[in-house]
Amino acid sequence: MMTTSTELHMYQREERMAKVFQAYEGFYVEFYKNNVMVERREMYSHSETYAENAAENYVDGVMQLNG
What we know:
By secondary structure, the chain is of the alpha+beta class.
């Protein structure tokens, strides 16, 4: 079964970017550094606001990733 998703929001600051998507299962965020995706984090059990906050925290340097 093919699942489609819709990009809802994009946040960017300097070399960091984060995109919030909505899929059938829920929300997820893709995190980029220098236009290379470093992590995709599923937030299916959380709200859109939660996903947006994670995206903002990443681009603002509050949240660090392992990638």
